[in-house]
Amino acid sequence: MTDPIFQERLAVRERRAPVPWVVAAGTVLAMFLVGVFVKTHGPMIAALMAGAAFALAASFYFAINWSIQKRRKDTPLVRAESGALSFDGRRFGPIEAAYLQPQSENASAVRVVGSWLRRADVLTPDDARADELLRALRVDPARSITRFRVYAGLLSNKNAQTILSAVLGIGAFNAFNLFPHQWKIPGALALFVLSALNWAPSSVAVGPDGLLVTSPTRLRRKFVPFAAIESATTTHWGVTLTLRSQRTIELRTENQPRAQSETRDALLRRIRAGIAAIDPAASIDVASLVARGSRPVDEWIRALRDVTKAAGGYRVAAVPEEKLWRVVEDPAADPSARAGAAAALSGSLDDSARARLRALAENAVHPRVRVALDAVASSDDDRVREALEACAEDELKTSRAGSTS
């Protein structure tokens, strides 16, 4: 079967995000000015110049970002074939990722990410054309990842978050009156950093298995499987998830209450579609067989090697590979079950099966599942073992957290 070809004249917005360079330049300039002015004018002037350097770097960032984003928004001939993309014959690439991205305009968009932080948003008239473009880029729309920005902040409660933002903002501008002489500069810089992290948006990646919330520093990540979500509703701030454990998680798509929001509505539709696609009863017998359960890791790995083999007698029968694939592809299955099913298949993978696993890994938002599937596809036994051990460690932490809550 030949790859589909997508060709249409569409609006395209290209940009290159200069965040790392601007932040690095601003930091180096601030450190240089602090060092110079501490010796020549004292710590007070040095701190003021450091703040001015950061403000100048931020101004440059917003100006450059705005100019690059607005520089190119025309309607070239968009052509996608065999995973390659071009605009008016000019190739865009190499392509590292392609996914749906909500836009403020009344249109669907496919975001294509290239090397060196280069990216392009291709605006399509509807979801159907966006799916056609993804297929031409060799991305399965049914298993593609959609990314959103949310304002998670440092606190989960929005009222406490508002108070913290006010306190950090006032404290940052009055740091020299709050801290003793030797702590004025470090205190001011610490408050400015906390304020920036508090206001910086987090990202939500919604895939076929659930959603992953990642903080701006990428140090804090939380995965929520669709199988654990009972319902999703909207508020003026965003989307609220009610889990089967009766806990609630709020995803704030807005930095202030709004009656209408296209981003919030798109996030709600994507989450509800993922919940509706989940079948908790699917593959449950095989999933319980390949999941770790209460077994030690070594025993679990030894058992996975024999899953596809008839061990003799009536106690253990060979599991068909089709059933194992069903567990691997089931977003409702336990993460350790998906990783275990993939490991059980490792001895019988051909090139097409490895490509199938890599495609599943690329579209999985659970970090451990993604790493495990990619490790099995690479046929690296050491990586597979490390991935299974990581899944077991995560499972242990989750069970401990559940027992203490």
Quickly list its features.
3 domains, four-stranded antiparallel beta sheet, PH-domain like, 405 residues, alpha+beta, five-stranded antiparallel beta sheet
Counting H and I runs of at least 4 residues, what is the number of helices? 14
The end-to-end span amounts to 52 Å
Shape: globular
Radius of gyration: 25 Å
Number of strands: 16
Structural class: alpha+beta
**Largest sheet properties:** 5 strands, antiparallel
Oligomer: single chain
Number of domains: 3
Beta-strand residue percentage: 15-25%
pLDDT < 50 stretches: 311-316
List the helices and strands and how they pair.
Layout: E1 5-9, E2 11-16, H1 19-40, H2 43-71, E3 73-74, E4 77-81, E5 84-87, E6 90-92, E7 95-100, E8 108-114, E9 118-124, H3 127-136, E10 146-150, H4 158-173, H5 175-178, H6 184-199, E11 202-206, E12 210-214, E13 221-225, E14 229-234, E15 238-243, E16 248-252, H7 262-277, H8 284-290, H9 297-305, H10 321-328, H11 335-345, H12 351-362, H13 367-377, H14 381-404
Antiparallel strand pairs: 1-4, 2-3, 2-9, 4-5, 5-6, 7-8, 8-9, 10-11, 11-12, 12-13, 14-15, 15-16
Helix pairs in contact: 1-2, 2-6, 4-6, 8-11, 9-11, 10-11, 11-13, 11-14, 12-13, 13-14
